[in-house]
Structure formats: C-alpha cells, structure tokens
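Archive entry: two folds, one per protein. Generate the first.
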Amino acid sequence: MIVTIPRGTELSFPACCCCCLAPTFNTRTVGYSSTATGMGYRETITASIKVPFCEECTRHDEGMRRKVVIIPMCLWGILSIASFPFFDLFFSSSDFSGNAQVVYMILSGCTIAAVIAVVTLVLYKTTIMSNWRKNNPGHSSPTGNCKLLGLDGIEFASDKYGQMFIEANPGRVRAAR
C-alpha cells in the first residue's frame, strides 16, 4: 500500500512491526536518496524515517537482502562455468585466427554469460522467491517491507499495516490512488 504524505508532516507509527505486526518499540531507519545533475550543478536530496521493526524481522530482512544478491550471483557463476564445454556448439571459432579469435571468444563468452544470467534470474524468481511466502508465514514480504518513495510517500508491503498507519495519522496522510 502506498501512502502519500504532505512534506513537513509529523508522523506517528503504530507500535507494531511493519512486517509481522507483532508489538514492538524497536525501530529501523528507512532512507531515500536521489541526485539530480544539470548544467553546472548537482543536487542531492535525502530523507529518512524510523519505522517500527521487531528484532526477528530486522534479522530476517537483512538476511534476505543478502540472499537476493548472493544466491543469483552464485547460480550465475556455476552455470557460466558449466557452459564452457558448450561454447563450440553455439559458435564456431575455426573461421578466426590470432587476435580475431580472442575477440570472438570474449564476445561469445559474454553472450552466453548474459543468456545464463537471464535464465538464472528467471529460475530464482520463479522457484525460490515464489515459495518464500509459503515458507515464511507471518512476514509480509521477503524484502522491502517499508520503502520511502521520495519526500512525499511511503510504500508498505503489508496493506494492513498501511491502513493502521493511516489511522494513526488522521487527516495528515492518505492512501495513494
């Protein structure tokens, strides 16, 4: 659920975790940063808020953020190495010699690596991440339970928490359309 917030509004958060909705008074900083450049200037806009997160969900969220990067990269590496024997099935290097053969091998390797990267990400999304909710009941999202959207919006993975947040800030915030 996306909630819009007028700039300069003081916010109140429900005293429960924005992920699992368990009671908590622990918070975690959620931030936003954007840089705009133009003719002779550079402007950076940053914002942050403290959002309630229980200790268990903080550990779980940080662990999932690492897995989202590490697992696909490991799969990509393994599949890339496993594809080396198949280079000549897709590309024939007999037409090249000397430096042209080196360039050919680099380009064919990059092409196969790119295809493998796409296949790896698709497999990761369709298998591991699709089974995530089933294996983690009570959590609203594998990552990104709360995201600051610029200076005037917050996105909550849990619609229920988003509604509780709106109720905790009557007349100050509203659900985005």
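Generate the second and append.
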Amino acid sequence: MGARASSVAMANAITGIGHSLKKLNRVDEATKVLDDAIDLLRDSGHPFMVDTLRTKASWCSEAGNWQAALDTYLEAVRINEIDGISEFIGRDLLSMAHCYSELGEWQKVIDASLRAREMFKSEKLVAEISWCDLNLADAYASLGDGESAIAWGKRANDVAMLRRDNEVICKSNYVMARGHMVSKNYQEAENLLEGAKDLVARSGDWVQVRKIEKALIELYRATERENEALEAERRLETLKEILD
C-alpha cells in the first residue's frame, strides 16, 4: 500500500512538472514528462491513469501529433471498456474519430463515430450524438458517398435546430454542402455554404471559415466562376498571412 501511494504521489508531482512545461509552450517535453507519470500510474494500477492519458492526448492533438494522440486515446478506451462509464468511453471514441479524420482514415472515422454514438445514445446524450453525426457526414462526403453525407448531416442539423446551436448548424450546413457537391447539386451546396458562412462570420472559428471558403472555391470552379474563385483565394491568403 505504501509503495503504491508513493508511486501515485511521484506521478502527481511529475504531472505537475508537465503542466508547468506546457504553460511555457514546451509541449514535446511536457508530453514526454507525462509518459513517466503514466508509467508510474500504470504500474500501480491507479484508477485515474485514464485522466492523465486524456491530458496527454489533448496536448498531442494541440501540437498536431495526431498519431500519438490517437494511440493514447486507444489506450484510454481499452482501459475504460473494462468497467468504465459509457459517456466517457463515448467521448474518447469521439476524440479518436477526430484523430482519424486528421489522418484521412475515413472508414475508421465512421467506425469510431458509430461506436461513440451507441455509447451516447445509451445515456441519451443528444448534443454529443449530433457531433457523431457531423463526423459521419464528413467522412461519407470524403469517401464520395454524397447521399449518406446529406442524411447524416440532416440528423445533426435537426438536433442543432432544436437546440439553437449555431456552431452545429453551421457545421452541418457545411457537411451537407459537401454531400451535395459530390452529387453535383451545386445550387443547394452553395445555399448551404452561404448559410454556414453567415453563421461562422462572427465566431472567430477561423478553421471553419477556411473550410467553407475552400469549399466555395471548389464550387465556383465547378460552375466556371473563376473570378469569384480568385476573389475567395485572395481572401484566404489575407487570412493566412495574419494567422500563420
């Protein structure tokens, strides 16, 4: 008992060092320090090791190290599946789906999102399910299945409209537009993208702004509107100069 308590105390101290390094933007060092804390917690069988795993995974995600983040979430899910809470397993699966998306592994996005959806549905977590549906729509659009992308996007949009959740309304418009682009239904795609553009305008979500503008550029070129495509590209370059 004493040895275990000592290991946990040491792990907590090491985790504190990791947080200090993270505040100094020394993310690589911070995540390596967390690995030492995780090893100690794993050896002692501490039940809260999963929390430290999630912290490491989130830091890896922030740094764009998606494979390391994915590997860490996978371990968290394996541990939680033994006797964990459905909501937390669902959240880890949803985070895994995001990692797979960043890595372009679309079928795995679908698999992880469907598993997460089951977990959230068992707990009646409506908002979380809508995020799963967004992931599914985006993945199907990336795989060239416009019909499925639109169907899952509508599910997310239905919940978002009921909740007056502008962020999810915006993102569901975007993924449905991607589905319509696959189906070459350009007018409907443009209507949805313009709606998404209006919603994101004051949000400060520049990642989503870029996604919408890039989709509009693709649409303008598909409909032979080169001048509008060039204007949109110019706007993106201005934004890139400021943010990158």
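Annotation attached to the second fold: The mean pLDDT is 91. The two ends are 51 Å apart (CA to CA).
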